[in-house]
User: Fold RsmB/NOP family class I SAM-dependent RNA methyltransferase from Labrys neptuniae.
Amino acid sequence: MSKPPFPARRPSAGPNVPGLAARALAVKAVAGVLGQDQALEDAFDDASLEARDLALARMIAGVSMRRYGTIGTLLEKLLAKGMPRKSGPLEAILITAAAQILFLDVPDRAAVDLAVRLARADDRAQAFSGLANAVLRKISAGKEELLAAIPPEADTPSWLYKRWSDQYGTATAAAMAAAQRVEPSLDLTVKADAAGWAERLGGRLLPTSSVRLAHNGTIRALEGFEAGQWWVQDAAAALPARLLGDVAGLRVADLCAAPGGKTAQVAAAGAKVTAVDRSAARLQRLSENLKRLDLEADVVTADILANDLQAWKAEPFDAVILDAPCSATGTIRRHPDVAWSKSARDIGAVADLQRRMLGRMASLVKPGGLLVYCTCSLEREEGEEQIARFLDGSKDFALEPVLSDDIGGIEGAITPEGFLRTLPSLLPDPDPVMAGMDGFFAARMRRKG
Ligand SMILES: C[S@@+](CC[C@H](N)C(=O)[O-])C[C@H]1O[C@@H](n2cnc3c(N)ncnc32)[C@H](O)[C@@H]1O
Assistant:
């Protein structure tokens, strides 16, 4: 290993050091995920940083979680005695600094210097600031060899990787894990004239009618945002609502609706939508989104598992979308912290909740009406197995298989049973940023007449 390119000096922790606030916020965000008490995005909600620092903090925290497996393996190798106990934010400081050194276009010297300052500023971590300095210098000096020794699947937790290998085969599991290492494109659903908006925004029109952009800047600054011409929605997340077909003039219930991607789709398609969610805070975001888009829905705060549904359900609906709460393992491309904050136990718990929700659908869908059930999970218990069991025990619903035309002909997204099953490895493209889609499951069922 060559000599580290750093002079020996002792940085101090000052409040106005350029770039320090962004690093401190990234450390807080990553520590929140590692402590199992917070989603990564929550750390940025009320952060009072300048836009540039906020964007940098987000980028550092995002890549730290996206490559957490690689960085963790590497730190294990370099810390002969393991991560020191009772060292406060030391682990998050090391991870975020290593992420900058290995994966971001940030001078290594700045990443090390600011990490050491953050360690020194914390009562529990300060005793380890020398260790932090030494480890990070080693990473900087040997990055190529260190990275070459770590397999690509290291960035997917082993329990999840094993599940995916069992469910989809090892080649597909490897392709999914590889897709999740890449910061994905921005996908938009547009109200009208998708081709025109793709051209205007310098993006690409996908066969599913979403518009895909290689953009990682401020979304609000893009043309058409303020005018409410489009909303952000992964290409896969836009598919379940399309399975309802032409909904113009129909009464549609969107259950578990917030923040409203699917509500906006059905409202824009001319349906009279009732959007139900139990979270008032998330519904607030749904209402703001609809307002910007100049779309309307009846917005109802309610628990769909509560005994009394009469407050919002005067009569059954022509169609219902149930976008059930789930393990969200299909969204790891966009929310890499999900990979490290879930466990196998979570899957059983949400599968049980989904089963109970499905059990209530018969009273909500008119005879002859459609039910679309979906989850952004890659786990069969929340998708294929859930619906197979539901249909097995149901005298009310029959499967209406998904057809290639329903989903713009994307290859490999329909199972032999007729379910929609998208994977992060679908929609391949020579440019990895423009490839892929979230993992979604959807089933379309018709209530028997
Ligand atoms: C996957 S998210 C929905 C995403 C949304 N459909 C969209 O397209 O933007 C799941 C939602 O289910 C809601 N939820 C969870 N349990 C619920 C319940 N028992 N009743 C109503 N909503 C619930 C959560 O508050 C959360 O907003």
